[in-house]
Amino acid sequence: MGCGSSTPGRDSRQFGRDNSENGGGQDAKNLRVKLVLLGDSGVGKSCIVLRFVRGQFDPTSKVTVGASFLSQTIALQDSTTVKFEIWDTAGQERYAALAPLYYRGAAVAVVVYDITSPESFSKAQYWVKELQKHGSPEIVLALVGNKADLHEKREVAVQDGIDYAEKNGMFFIETSAKTADNINELFEEIAKRLPRPSAS
Amino acid sequence: MTKLFSRTFAASPEDSRTDNDISEKICLLQTFLKPEHLDIPALLRNEASWLLAQKELRKINGFKSPREKLLCIMNCCRVINNLLLNATISENHVPAGADDFLPVLIYVTIKANPPQLHSNLKFIQLYRWQAKLVSEAAYYFTNLVSAMAFIVDLNATSLSMDEEKFEECMEAAKLMSQQTEAKCSSSGKMCDKTEETKGQLGRMNARLEQFNSPTTRHWSQYTELRERVTSSSTMSSVTTAGERSGPSTRSPTRNKICHVISAGNSEGGNVMRPCSARNRCTQLRKGESVEATAAEGKVRKS
Q: Which keywords label this protein (chain A) (predicted)?
């Protein structure tokens, strides 16, 4: 790709700067992290973000910002704040090759699947492999099984998710954007796992 | 940055080649690509919003600073975002994320065919203050970069379209663009004419060479003879002067040959310039030289 590949020097610099910010940077108490969402289309990536940012699922409510890029700041108990800049990606198969443009320089990658769809689970595994191959080595990975409220239609067992996450050193959680179950927990846990400045 | 613009923007020939390639591909795609090929839901097909977004995106070439160029991208993306949000509010659609955003941006980019897209993006990437190319701006910038990457690599498998039909459409589009080029593209016509004239000049040069070779032989014979005469007889200054200024001592044919050859020599032997070639041809074949002049006239006119 022309724009990306033609400026390797600059890219790596940007990359380095992002890392230093995520790892503490100048302001150890106020972290800013780039979080990228990956997963098949229709697994509810944007619903999770909307739930987290707006605290609501109802799509009829007035949302004033774009749903593909959102940011939200959370405060942790140790009085640090973490500002998540959430980058949504298009999940359709035909855009899969574009994903590296998005997760470059990301501190966190959240891979989402739908517990009622085994295909979306295998797609999630594909993304995990891609991230391990091409992502930043310090990237925090989270595996999320969404639509946990639809347990009567469940086709991916909880244990499958746990096992896969454990094998790949990921954090695993099942969420429901509809009932808001585990949404805040997901982001809090990610914030805790972020690499901290050496002082803390 | 504005002052350096001409040196920093699309400065390398590779960049302008990439720009042209992308623009040509988009031109072909424009002829047949429909929103359904990118699976854009009917709900999001809003011509008015799309036109507005295209207009915003096309403004990118009107600005010289990386900041303003980036703003054009942001404005275009905001228009699309508003469209998505309105759709989710009015209909009970699932909240639109990147799954809906990117296809619309790709479609808008194809419809807009913003001039020098590659160079514009590269320019922003290189020269926008990196501390400002973060967060939302970086996100929308990345989206346009990936839209362009998608278009560059676009083939039948990247669209919801039959492979054969895609090839057919691309071929038809190519044919159509060739026809329009032949018909109305003035620059193309001029190129053709120039080629034609070049060909004619080449042919004339070859003929001139044919004509020149016996002349050169005659000239060398003449010089030899003259030298022999000069060395064998005691030359008076009067004769020399007479020879120098005396076309009267030579036959008219020789004189003409002399003229032609000296003209050739003074121009540096074999190096032929189109103009002098034409002049010389006037002496050779009147008909052809008229043709050459006519051809040149046409080039100038068009």
A: Nucleotide-binding
